Amino acid sequence: MLDLRSLRADPDAIREKLARRGDPGVDRLVGDVLEADEERRRLIAEVEALKAERNTASRAIGEAKQRGEDSADRIAAMQGVAARIRTLDAALGDTEGRIRDALLLIPNVPDDRVPPGAEGEGKIIAEWGDPLHTDVPPHWELGAACGRASTHGRALYPGGGAPALDIERGAKIAGSGFPLLVGAGARLSRGLIQFMLDLHTREHEYLEIAPPLLVSRDSMTATGHIPKFEEDAYRTEPDDLFLVPTAEVPLTNLHRDEILDGAELPLAYVAHTPCFRREAGAAGRDTRGLLRVHQFDKVELVRVCRPEDSEAELELLTRHAERVLELLEVPYRRVLLPAGDLGFANAITYDLEIWAPGVDEWLEVSSCSSYTDYQARRGNIRFRPAAGEKPEFVHTLNGSALAIARLLVALLEIGARDGDGIAVPEILHPYVGFERLEPLS
Predict the structure, then answer these.
(1) Beta pairing partners, 363
(2) Peptide bond just before 402 cis, omega within 30 deg
(3) Is the pLDDT of residue 394 over 60?
(4) 235 near 367, Cβ under 8 Å?
């Protein structure tokens, strides 16, 4: 969340930066916070004055008792003061709750490097490789027509050849948005995950974590996923737990309510998890095949650093994600998102987009973001710069490296060979045990 002291000190500057996001409701929330903060300070001043009066009266009553004087009137008056203090303390608690509730709904301030603009108006920063513009079928057709011959799948596919992708059976099991990977498709997904985990742990020096797939309300609040986007999450009853929308949530919360040793920073974590998103606000968009699904696998990177290292850490994290695409020989472009397309908690984001010729569009396969101290304030994650120094809030960063579903889209469509199946990137051959997906007819 935003720093209340900074908001109080220069509300116009923060309002101006937040206005770049294009959400008119944010200004009202800022006004609510400032109004409640003014009320809070008034209540604190009144409570402190009454407590000082009570302390003075208590001393006077004690001295009067020593002199044998009757203090009944003074005692009765102080009982009234004590009742007033209790009333004010309750009002103060309510006001502080209003401030926190409003702050939780105010997004992060965009970084000065973020350009103006709305969704689709990002700035292309870099490009790698030559996107293919050949006329190939979309991945849902390719995945259904190609796979590997197998005797083990005869009950499902009597012809003996298991397709890589079975959209219909996935929908039968769980509904639309839950695709089924079969045989070589499942093995290709598993091989991609293993390849990426090996790369990030061995070469990029991340610590691998296998986190819980259910997280608490406090964890989701710390990363900014709720209360703003609770309708997009899968929630369990009666536990009030949430299926992870991304491994960013458990990885960032590893250090919630902790004070870290500044000498140990930066910290770097990687995890593979399935991810679950209802995406209630995206109904009807890109619903074919693997383009927009409710469950998908992802390898996620999270870095925790000192504020002064944040800019360099974002570049490093983004390069780690780009390295995956380069080794897979998948052309991509890095796009700096404009203020109107930033995620709620993000201060700055690079999207990595890959070209999928079969669906004829660029697909976001990774978002690499800095949250500055926004998540750290929500989760109370601090570090001590040096022994004896006052703790400060860390900066948190995260990025997908990479999301599997859309990566599979590109690999199937880029690797399509007319009448000769789908070529698999060479670096994956040891992980999957084959060089191509074969035509099934």
Answers:
(1) 354
(2) yes
(3) yes
(4) no
What is d(CA 304, CA 338) in angstroms, rounded to the nearest whole number?
24
pLDDT of residue 29: 94
Mean pLDDT of 285-294: 83
pLDDT-derived band at 286, boundaries 50, 70, 90: low
Cβ proximity of 292 and 282 under 8 Å: yes
Q: Do domains 4-103 and 123-439 have the same CATH topology?
A: no
Q: 413, 408, 437: which is closest to 190 by C-alpha?
A: 408
Q: What is the mean pLDDT of residues 158-179?
A: 91
* Structure tokens, 16: 């101006």
Parse the chain into domains and list their residue ranges.
Answer: 4-103, 123-439
CATH architecture of 123-439: 2-Layer Sandwich (3.30)
Using alpha carbons, select from 33, 31, 17, 37 the residue that is nearest to residue 108.
17
Tell me: pLDDT of 285 over 70: no
Residue 116: partners with Cβ closer than 8 Å, 6 or more residues away: 20, 338, 339, 340
- Amino acid at the residue 330: V
DSSP 8-state class, residue 391: P
Asked whether 279 and 215 are in contact (CB, 8 A), the reply is no
Sign, CA dihedral 61-62-65-66, equals: negative
**Token pair of 230, please?**
């609770």
* CATH code, residues 4-103: 1.10.287.40
Minimum mean pLDDT range among 56-70, 74-88, 94-108, 218-232: 56-70
What is the rounded CA–CA span in Å between residue 111 and residue 93?
Answer: 33
Selection from 402, 401, 407 nearest residue 181 by Cα: 407
Rounded Cα–Cα distance for residues 358 and 339 (Å):
30
Tokens of residue 216, six digits: 């608490």
CA nearest neighbour of 380 among 262, 257, 267: 257
Rounded to the nearest integer, the mean pLDDT of the chain is 93
285: number of Cβ within 10 Å:
9
| Residues 335 and 122: beta-carbon distance below 8 Å | yes
Structure tokens at 45: 């001043």
What are the residues facing 438 on neighbouring strands? Answer: 147
pLDDT at 281 over 60: no
Give Cβ neighbours of residue 372 (< 8 Å, ≥ 6 apart).
Answer: 108, 109, 111, 307, 310, 347, 395
